[in-house]
Specification:
The protein is elongated and about 95 Å long. The protein is built from 2 helices and 25 strands. It has a 5-stranded mixed sheet with strand order 19-25-24-21-22, with no helix packed on it. It has a 4-stranded antiparallel sheet with strand order 1-3-6-5, with no helix packed on it. The chain is mainly beta. The protein has helices spanning about 5-25, 40-45, and strands at about 60-65, 65-70, 75-80, 90, 95-100, 105-110, 115-120, 125-135, 140, 145-150, 155, 160, 170, 175-180, 185, 195-200, 205-215, 220, 225, 230-240, 245-250, 260-265, 265-270, 280-285, 290-299. The chain starts with 6 loop residues before the first helix and ends with a strand.
């Protein structure tokens, strides 16, 4: 007579079968190629990767994001915000400029006219970048105009702003004055009212100019006149380089009787008989190139 199988035996057998089925199914949920006898190899080939997240305060910003410079020595102040302090400040090109970090503030100074980038990092390595562009008026002379007495030995100190050294200085009329290579202008003995032009050129070929007036400006007296056909007006020169250097020229020669030009301290303008309801001009120049103009109305 066969002995009955105990109920406990069936329960144990069922548990073993269930465990084997679980081991067979689990690998299929991740990778069917997994060797269940080598779990270390499985996890090496299927590593856990966390989802990257941006935590609070991780975004760094810079203000302004762009700036322009026009002269060497110009400064631009940048401000950082966000991220996690402290900040560190850097420039992409140390030849064109430098930056000093003062906490959330970065002070940029141009050492050469050129493009650059300012970069700010927070303590976690997050960064923000600003762009610096070079442009605008690259070079200027200060002062741009000057007036000095007529006598010799008067001086004006000019300085250059911007550009790239070294600089070269020159004057249009060396007989009026000299200029040193540090911008010191010294007058020579010359007539009043003469105008000289000072020019500076930098290493890159950029130029700037200034003007110097020696003494009294060149003028005509009277500066306007109304005249009838057949009548005349006498004009007188004043200032400029003085007597012996004046030249007169009529613009529309058909409106006057000869002469229509001449030299000297005065000029006689005689209206032609046929001229009426017309406007003419008379120009006076001196030896330095300065000029003045009078207007004549024919009624």
């Amino acid at each position: 007579m066969m002995k009955p199988i105990k109920r406990m035996t069936f329960l144990r057998l069922g548990s073993v079968v269930a465990a084997l089925l679980t081991l067979a199914v689990l690998p299929a949920c991740e990778d069917t190629s997994v060797n269940t006898s080598d779990l270390d190899s499985y996890f090496a080939n299927n590593p856990y990767v966390s989802d990257p997240r941006t935590g609070p305060g991780s975004d760094v910003s810079i203000n302004p994001t762009a700036a322009s410079i026009s002269v060497v020595g110009q400064e631009v102040v940048f401000t950082a915000s966000g991220g996690n302090t402290p900040y560190s400040w850097h420039v992409a090109n140390n030849d064109n400029g430098s930056i000093i970090g003062r906490g959330s503030q970065g002070d940029y100074k141009a050492t050469r006219l050129g493009n650059n980038n300012v970069i700010v990092y927070d303590i976690d390595g997050h960064a923000a970048i600003a762009t610096i562009s070079a442009g605008g008026a690259s070079i200027m002379i200060s002062p741009s105009t000057a007036t000095i007495p007529t006598s010799a030995g008067n001086q004006v100190q000019f300085t250059v702003v911007g550009g790239q050294p070294p600089y070269t200085w020159s004057v249009s009329f060396p007989d009026l004055a000299t200029i040193s290579q540090d911008g010191l202008y010294t007058s020579k003995l010359a007539g009043g009212g003469s105008i000289n032009v000072v020019t500076v050129v930098d290493q890159a070929g950029n130029t700037a100019t200034a003007t110097v007036t020696h003494g009294t400006p060149l003028t005509i007296s009277p500066s306007t006149a109304v005249i009838s056909a057949g009548n005349s007006v006498t004009f007188t020169a004043n200032g400029g380089r003085g007597s012996g250097n004046y030249h007169w020229q009529v613009a529309n020669t058909s409106l006057v009787d000869p002469p229509s030009s001449g030299n000297g301290d005065t000029f006689v303008y005689k209206a032609a008989v046929v001229s009426s309801n017309m406007v003419n001009s008379l120009t006076l120049t001196d030896g330095s190139g300065a000029s003045a103009t009078a207007t004549i109305t024919h009624n």
